């Protein structure tokens, strides 16, 4: 199969993609959010992703 024949399944096409994330990024809701430390204050955050990012755990939107 030629590279141009393959379709890369991007985050924006995935059922776990949420474009309503805080700030300028979209978020991935595949796994639970993780704790992040910033300025000595922990908070919980979902992974921030771009529309054209991809991973090996893609699931089609229904």
Describe the structure using short key phrases.
62 residues; mainly beta; three-stranded antiparallel β-sheet; 5 strands; 27% strand
What is the compact description of this entry?
The protein is built from no helices and 5 strands. It has 62 residues and is mostly beta strands. The strands form 2 sheets. Strands 1-2-5 form a 3-stranded antiparallel beta sheet, with no helix packed on it. Strands 3-4 form a two-stranded antiparallel sheet.
Describe this structure in words.
With 62 residues, the chain is an all-beta fold. It has one domain (3-49). The protein has no helices and 5 strands. The strands form 2 sheets. Strands 1-2-5 form a 3-stranded antiparallel sheet, with no helix packed on it. It is elongated. The model has no long low-confidence stretch (mean pLDDT 84).
- End-to-end C-alpha gap: 27 Å
- Beta strands, count: 5
| Structural Rg | 14 Å
Which class of secondary structure composition applies to the elements? Answer: mainly beta
- Spans of 5+ residues with little confidence (pLDDT < 50)? none
- Write the element-wise H/E pattern from the N-terminal end onward: EEEEE
Strand content: 25-35%
- Strand order, sheet with most strands: 1-2-5
- The number of helical elements comes to 0
Shape: elongated
Number of domains: 1
Largest sheet report: 3 strands, antiparallel
Measured as a percent range, the helix fraction is under 10%
Overall pLDDT: 84
């Amino acid at each position: 199969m030629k590279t141009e024949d393959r379709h890369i399944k991007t985050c924006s096409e995935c059922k776990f993609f949420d474009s309503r994330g805080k700030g300028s990024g979209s978020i991935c809701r595949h796994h639970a959010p993780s704790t992040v430390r910033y300025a000595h204050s922990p908070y919980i955050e979902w992974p921030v992703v771009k529309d054209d990012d991809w991973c090996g755990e893609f699931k089609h939107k229904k």
